[in-house]
Design a protein that fits this description.
Order of helices and strands: EHEHEEHHHH
Number of helices: 6
Number of strands: 4
Strand content: 5-15%
Radius of gyration: 14 Å
Distance between the termini: 32 Å
CATH class: Alpha Beta
Helix content: 40-55%
Shape: globular
Number of domains: 1
Structural class: alpha+beta
CATH topology: Glutaredoxin
Strand order of the largest sheet: 2-1-3-4
Length: about 130
C-alpha cells in the first residue's frame, strides 16, 4: 500500500524545527503533508507509543509506516517535488552515512542553533519570516 498522506511530528519549542516545518510547508509536494506539534495531545494519542517520540523528528504515513531521525529527514525531502531526486541520492550507500551524520550533527546542536535564530512564531503558522 502506498501512502496518500504524510504527517511530520516536530518539536514546536525548537526555533530551528519551526523554521524547517515552515520551509517544508512552502514546498510543492507529491502528496499532502500535515504538521503536528509533538506537544499537541493529538500527537501523543496517535504516536506516543512509537520509539523516539518527542526525541527526534518523525514522519508518519497514513499507511502506518513511520520514519524517525535521519530517515524522517530524507522522507521530508522525498515528499517534495524539488528535492525528491536528492532524497534518493542521500539514502544510497555512498551518501547515507553523510546524510545521517549531517542530521545527527544538526539535531544535537539544534538548541544552540535555535538560540541564534530570531523567533518567528505565528498564530496560524504561516508567517513570512522565512523565505523559500
Amino acid at each position: 500500500m502506498k501512502p496518500t498522506r504524510l504527517t511530520v511530528v516536530y518539536d514546536e519549542d525548537c526555533e530551528l524545527c519551526r523554521r524547517c516545518r515552515h520551509w517544508l510547508s512552502l514546498q510543492a509536494t507529491h502528496l499532502p503533508v500535515d504538521f503536528l506539534a509533538a506537544g499537541d495531545p493529538a500527537a501523543k494519542d496517535r504516536y506516543g507509543q512509537l520509539a523516539r517520540y518527542r526525541v527526534e523528528l518523525m514522519m508518519v504515513a497514513d499507511d502506518g509506516r513511520a520514519w524517525v531521525g535521519p530517515a524522517a529527514f530524507i522522507m521530508c525531502l522525498w515528499s517534495t517535488v524539488k528535492w525528491r531526486r536528492m532524497s534518493y541520492r542521500l539514502r544510497s550507500p555512498s551518501f547515507a552515512p553523510l546524510a545521517e551524520s549531517f542530521f545527527h550533527g544538526l539535531s544535537s546542536h539544534r538548541s544552540t542553533l535555535s538560540g541564534m535564530l530570531r523567533d518567528h512564531r505565528c498564530d496560524d503558522g504561516a508567517c513570512g519570516a522565512l523565505a523559500s
